[in-house]
Amino acid sequence: MFRDDLLAGKRILITGGGTGIGLSIGRRYLSLGAELVICGRREQVLAEAAEELQRDTGGRVSFKACDIRDAAQVDALLDWAWTEGPLDGLVNNAAGNFIAQSETLSPRAIDAVLGIVLHGSAYMTIGCGRRWLAAGRRASVLSIITTYAWTGSAYVVPSAMAKAGVLAMIRSLAVEWGGRGVRLNAIAPGPFPTAGAWERLVPKPELAAAFEAKNPLKRAGRHEELANLASFLMAEEAAYINGEVVTIDGGEWLQGAGQFNFVGSMMSQADWQALKPRK
């Protein structure tokens, strides 16, 4: 789809880059000539991902464990990343989410999602932006959000709150920083199956089947489709796109707002009880 050197010379950090969508985007970036930095909370997962990516693509990957909910850890990560040269791009991909009846949510559960998605994305974006602006360096930020950032959705309220905040951030900073060489955009994916996340979001096979097919195309997205979009938005050829959100969901949100509104009609009270953490 793209020339092989589309992202050559770019050094890009992906949060949550050791698994799922982040891993798929990283693999595509490497195949297009970028150098990759990945972070996440589990160092062993990152090490295995880095080895896999380098073996598959021949590209250069560095990694460091970081809990992006902790601003001090984020700052230390960015200082470490910059020791080998400045970054040119950031992908805010790390996320936390689960389905739950909202009246059962504890403050800790709410904070867990907001900490990763909203606070972590803000710490990363502001930290990178501060360094880029001080150096007068052109750069790009891409945040992975969701269509319920603007529609809202039942049963994933903390995630909806957090993603809406990230959307507000990228639109605000696109205006504030765009004229200084830093542009910010977002992608709003529909269903793109990933191990781990799927079990938390659609724990029953019939839920997964309904979730993946409730769009006009009647299928889930393929990771390479999302990775190609992420590559385009990170490339210099997309340099006039700033403050935009590109939806890639097969037309799902147009068909019906609120990705998880359907869950209530398909989950019994026993199913909800089974999802509660064991003490």
Short structural summary:
The chain has 279 residues and is α/β, with parallel strands linked by helices.
Structure keywords:
279 residues, alpha/beta, Rossmann fold, seven-stranded parallel sheet, 11 helices, 7 strands, globular
Describe this structure in words.
The protein is an alpha/beta fold and 279 residues long. The protein has one domain: Rossmann fold. Helix content is 47%, strand content 14%. The chain has eleven helices and seven strands. It has helices spanning 20-31, 43-57, 71-82, 107-135, 148-151, 157-178, 197-201, 205-213, 223-234, 252-255, 269-275; strands at 11-15, 35-40, 61-65, 89-92, 139-144, 182-189, 245-248. It has a seven-stranded parallel β-sheet with strand order 3-2-1-4-5-6-7, with helices on both faces. Helix 4 (107-135) links the parallel strand 4 (89-92) and strand 5. Helix 3 (71-82) packs parallel to helix 4. The longest helix has 29 residues, at 107-135. The protein is globular.
Count helical runs: 11
CATH architecture: 3-Layer(aba) Sandwich
Largest pleated sheet: 7 strands, parallel
- Portion in beta strands: 5-15%
- Provide the CATH topology: Rossmann fold
- The ordered H/E elements are EHEHEHEHEHHEHHHEHH
Oligomer classification: single chain
Helix content: 40-55%
Overall 3D form: globular
C-alpha-based Rg, rounded: 18 Å
Distance between the termini: 50 Å
Unreliable runs, pLDDT <50, ≥5 residues? Answer: none
CATH level-four homologous superfamily name? NAD(P)-binding Rossmann-like Domain
What is the CATH C-level name?
Alpha Beta
Mean of residue pLDDT values = 93
| Strands side by side in the biggest sheet | 3-2-1-4-5-6-7
Number of strands: 7
The chain-level structural class is alpha/beta
- Count of discrete structural domains: 1
